[in-house]
Amino acid sequence: DEEHDIALAGDYYWSPQSSVGLELSDAEGYDYGLRFQHFFTQSIAMKLNYTAAYDENVVGVGLTARF
Length: 67
What we know:
The protein is about 0% helix and about 65% strand. By secondary structure, the protein is mainly beta. The chain has strands spanning about 5-15, 20-25, 30-40, 45-50, 55-65. The model has no long low-confidence stretch (mean pLDDT about 90).
């Protein structure tokens, strides 16, 4: 029932540059994800995430830039 999906996410910052997060969702079964982000400078960050979904697992790596 996609009309009543619930998702929850939160991040914990153990320093001003680094965080770890958790995502939970009941869409299409119960899914969860873990994420990590670290800012090397005030505008450049690296992101890593892992999502365990109902039918597949996904690993992602990315860069973030803010202006």
